Amino acid sequence: ASSPDEEWPEAEKAEKLARGAALKWASGVFYRPEKLEGLGQYRSRETQRNRSIQSRLKSTVQSYLEGVSTGLEQLRSAAQEVQSVCQDLGAAQWALLDSADCFQGLQQMRVLMAEHVQLASVVQVLPQLFSVHEVFSHTLQLLHGQHLLEAHAELMMMEHLRDNILSQLYLRGLSSAQATVLSYFSGLQELNQSLAKQLWDIVGNSLRLVREDPVVFVTAVRIIEREEKIDDTLLLEATFLPPGRPKGWRQKFYRVLQETITGAHFHTTRTDTEGPGLARHLAALQKDIVSELRVVKDLMVQCVPARYNILSVCTATYHEALTSHLQDILREDLDKQALFLLLEWALHMYHSPEMMGHPDLLPEVDVSALGPLMSPELVDQTERKYVVKVKASVLEWMQRTLEVEFKEWFREEEPETDHQGFFQSALPVIVMQMLNENIQVASLITDSLQQKVYAMALEELEAFLGRLREALVQCGKEHQKDRAVPKYYISYLLAVLNNNLALSSSVSSLHPDMARREVPMSLRAALDRTQKKACQLLLEELLLDLQPLCLHLPSRKWLSGSQLISSMCEVIDKYAKDFSHVRKPVFMLLLTESELLVVSQYLRALMQKKMVCKSEEERGQLCDRLLQDASQLRELFCGLGLERSQQSLEAIFALRELICLKDPALLSLEVLGFITKYPDVSDEHISTLLDLRGDVSREVRHMVLDMMVQHPQVLPESYRPIFSTILVPVPELPFCLRKGKCA
């Protein structure tokens, strides 16, 4: 047996703590002798305390012992009762086993009871079943008489009867009997179809009925609401769904209404896509849609529940139908007028106060949330088609204008002049007006279309200038065949130059942005090429008149008189008078180019090796003639308004200095100064000039040419070439025996 300390370790621990506390207290008492006097009182107090503790312990233990005794008595009683219950359950089990045959009889009783209940249910509905066919006939009569609410009430009653019977059969698992019931109620389908047909006819004519007889339309809506409520109830129960349910007549209502709207306006015969016909079609759509939406807003909204959102549905239907309708129209090959009408109608008219923004429709009708009538991609595609059509039209008009202009060049009268006497024609006005009108018309649609048309206009103007140059070339060829045709060839060339100036000055006004009116480089280059071509033809005409005179230069006859240069001055003056009919920028250009042409022809004639000075006296005559000719020409061009700094005649004066030099040994220095001033001069030119002097030895010639080799020249950027266009005749080979073949 174990000791009490091993069974109760907490008691041992408590005893140790008590002994420790007592020793601590005792050591404190014996440490202070003055406290020993109260030792007797302490002993008596502790003795009394111990007695109290022992008394409480005895009462507590006595209470616990009494509770244990009571519990043991209760357990003994419960055990006896459990034993008695087990005996009773065993007896009940044997009794149930003996009654199994009686339960089989009860099962048969239950089946009979169920059949009795079914028969009772059938007996209850037999009067109603017997009257079904009679109700069918009466309901049809009501439908034919337009008594829709009464007909629908009887229809709902019969459907309810059928559904109750089918539900009971379904719950009892008698699915085989359902087919019989359905065949008995087969007439319901015909009634439903007949009623639905009348309802959808009413919905299809709803826009007319809400104005003329709203009661009929309201009746149809009430029937639809009844059916919708029945559908919702059956779907919530979700135990048995009768045949034909859900009917979904509210959704069918929306579909019929939408089909009516689209069919009335957008599924008719093929739309006339020509300009006037399309305009009438769009105007009719605008009028009808606004009128019908006003009916919906003012009348139909009051005839249907608010949750139908009938105005929003109709607005969305018109919007979607119009979107599809416009796409169908755009698939056709439309002309520019039709494309413009569609863009203007879809982007501006549709949202304007004349249509969807009509005061009678606001604020209830709001198409801003439905998206654009034409998507940005479709708008861009349509704009490009429009630009292509406009481009073809502009091309045709410009070609026709050019043909008229070309014919006018061959008229027997001079071109018309403005108030300042400058030749001109109607060509720039026609062209610019045509382009500007198309750009302004495009601005009525979108900025992007205006930019596209502007870019197209510049391209077509550039192409037109190319065709104009071709026409000038053709006219020049005709003139070369017979200089009398055209009669006023020069005058019309001057008119072309003035027209080109007019185009150049007005083309910047085509730009849609007032702050950005720069002319593209390619178009500016085309204008410059046109101007150069007309100037070239004029200078060629001047050249043809100068060349016969230059054939006599240089010659002994030329040295002896000034008649030749006077004749040249007369020709130049005549052309200058003609040039005065062109505006100043081009007039100065023609004057400058004419002066350069005269100088180059004069120098070219001197380089032809037609003459060699035989004596110093003849060289003196040549120098005098060169001085007189150059001075006379300078005076002429200065009188015409060309300043000395802009003239090239200084080359003749410089060339004269080479010929007038008395000491050939100084030619190297003089030639060096000459080639420095005119870097495009070649050794062939210098050699020809030395030949013209007639007194230059072979050694001096070699020295001059070697000096030129040692001092190559570079052409400055601003230098106007003079000698590079003058070809020096190639000398005949001295070793040729005959012209046919060299030995």
TrEMBL record:
Q: Which terms in the GO cellular component ontology are assigned?
A: exocyst; transport vesicle
Matching Gene3D superfamilies, A to Z?
Answer: 1.10.357.50, Exocyst complex component Sec6, C-terminal domain
The chain's coiled-coil residues are none
Primary location class: cytoplasm
Q: Which domain of life is it from?
A: Eukaryota
Question: What is one process in the GO biological process aspect for this record?
Answer: exocytosis
Task: List UniProt keywords, sorted A-Z.
Answer: Cytoplasmic vesicle, Exocytosis
Q: Name one Pfam family in it.
A: Sec6
Question: Where does this protein reside within or beyond the cell?
Answer: Cytoplasmic vesicle, Secretory vesicle
Q: Which GO terms describe its molecular function?
A: SNARE binding
> Which family does this protein fall into?
Belongs to the SEC6 family.
Q: What does this protein do?
A: As part of the exocyst, may play a role in regulated exocytosis of insulin granules.
Q: What does the subunit section of this Swiss-Prot or TrEMBL entry state? A: Interacts with EXOC2, EXOC4 and EXOC5; may be part of the exocyst.
Q: What is this protein called?
A: Exocyst complex component 3-like protein
Say which species the protein is native to.
Answer: Podilymbus podiceps (Pied-billed grebe)
User: What's the encoding gene here?
Assistant: Exoc3l1
